[in-house]
Write a structure and sequence with these properties.
Blueprint: E1 8-12, H1 25-42, H2 51-58, E2 64-73, E3 76-86, E4 93-100, H3 109-123, E5 128-135, E6 142-144, E7 151-153, H4 156-162, E8 167-178, H5 181-197, E9 201-207, H6 212-228, H7 243-254, E10 259-267, E11 273-281, E12 289-296, H8 305-320, E13 326-332, H9 336-345, E14 348-359
Parallel strand pairs: 4-5, 12-13
Antiparallel strand pairs: 1-2, 2-3, 3-4, 5-14, 6-7, 8-13, 8-14, 9-10, 10-11, 11-12
Helix pairs in contact: 5-8
Length: 361
């Protein structure tokens, strides 16, 4: 779309089938700028991905419609915009992002990209628009989370969102754990304690693709992530995770050559999987590790299973990615039980993310 602003083009970016396809140049360029934007915000490269790692996660699926644009300014790529439309029945939600290189801020480009996104979300009948933004540490005024837990600096992104009708709903803590001898010694101790408390459960683990025997149990826990993780006033659709959805999830890691280790606790009497933790790394095994979902099923809380799956997973990780220097994880600032576990392991807060929502009228 050629915008009325001189020099601005919001160029639709179809996701190519492969990074080698002749049409993939825009996608490859988008990934380069994506990495630069995140480096500018955070000051580190922990969020870097290669085109080959990102592509499988963005390809069309039956579960979400994804729209992408490359933001061109004077013929140069300066950022990207995206809108995800979950395809759960009756979904009201649109999840969007506008991410620009710092040199392009403050010229009305973000506003133009956002206005296009809001218009398209309306055309698709979506009435709840949501986004997340990293708000790096800054001196000065802060916005408290309405949950009562955490706050973010009243920075450029916060003002941009507020001025477009968004409300901060939740603060998410980004934490890092150094993977060094001291951490591994602490993990061994914590793991022994958790094992002693978790009588009646055993640890099972796999790297994706998920073995057939665990597909149903893993799918049930992935569905519970949506309903059980603290979401404050953010709106997320309930999801059904059948075998096809687990396979689609696994494909995005396998096709990207990314390793995901799932460490689960199995209730011995019933055979049910009742807790799990995920650790992920891309093709560069000396890069940061990402800790993704962790959950203990409600009926099985209070047996130290959260600590058990985290510690057992991190201890096993040493054989998979011995050169990875640290683990990054994201937790709702009000999620005290999870933060207690992470703090005991040695995770330290690095930065904070805001979860933002607007209800269209
Ligand atoms: C947040 C972000 C998208 C804002 O984009 P931006 O292009 O800097 O925003 P704009 O220039 O359109 O608007 C910012 C302010 O500058 C004003 N502005 C400055 N120069 C302008 C111009 N020439 N024309 C129009 N507006 C201008 C806008 O009116 C706006 O003020 P307002 O909020 O009072 O209306 C951008 O800073 C960014 O990419 N940040 C990092 C990623 C991020 O946090 N994204 C947000 C969530 S996904």
């Amino acid at each position: 779309m050629q915008n009325t602003m001189t020099g601005l083009e919001l160029r639709p970016m179809p996701v190519p089938a492969s990074v080698d396809a002749p049409v993939a140049a825009d996608f490859v360029d988008m990934v380069r700028v994506r990495n630069l934007v995140y480096r500018e915000i955070s000051g580190h490269g922990d969020n870097d991905v290669t085109p080959g790692e990102l592509l499988p996660a963005l390809q069309p699926t039956p579960y979400v419609e994804r729209l992408f644009w490359n933001v061109m300014w004077g013929g140069e790529l300066v950022g990207r915009a995206g809108l995800d439309l979950p395809l759960e029945e009756g979904s009201r939600v649109g999840l969007w992002r506008v991410e620009l290189l710092r040199a392009a801020w403050g010229r009305g480009i973000g506003t133009a990209a956002y206005e296009m996104i809001e218009r398209i979300a309306r055309e698709h009948g979506r009435t709840v628009l949501q986004t997340a933004a990293e708000h790096p540490h800054a001196e000065g005024a802060r916005i408290p989370s309405p949950t009562g837990f955490g706050s973010i600096p009243h920075d450029w992104a916060a003002r941009f969102l507020q001025n477009r009708g968004y409300r901060l709903e939740q603060v998410v803590r980004v934490s890092a754990l150094p993977l060094d001898d001291k951490t591994y010694a602490r993990l061994a101790e914590l793991c022994d304690e958790a094992r002693a408390a978790a009588d009646g459960y055993r640890v099972v683990s796999w790297t994706v693709p998920t073995p057939t025997e665990f597909v149903a149990g893993y799918g049930a826990m992935k569905a519970a992530m949506i309903t059980d993780a603290p979401a404050a006033e953010m709106e997320y659709d309930e999801e059904e995770w059948d075998a096809a959805r687990v396979a689609e999830h696994d494909r995005t890691y396998v096709d990207a050559d990314r390793t995901m280790l799932v460490t689960a606790a199995q209730h011995i009497a019933s055979g049910d999987l009742v807790a799990f933790n995920e650790l992920v790394i891309g093709t560069d095994l000396s890069a940061a590790t990402s800790q993704e979902d962790t959950l203990v099923a409600r009926a099985h809380r209070g047996h130290r299973l959260g600590m058990l799956v985290k510690c057992a997973g991190l201890l096993a990780w040493r054989d998979i990615a011995p050169a990875s220097p640290r683990v990054i994880t994201y937790n709702a600032e009000e999620n005290r039980p999870m933060l207690d576990i992470n703090e005991a392991i040695g995770f330290l807060p690095e930065s904070y993310e805001g979860e933002w929502k607007k209800e269209l009228t």
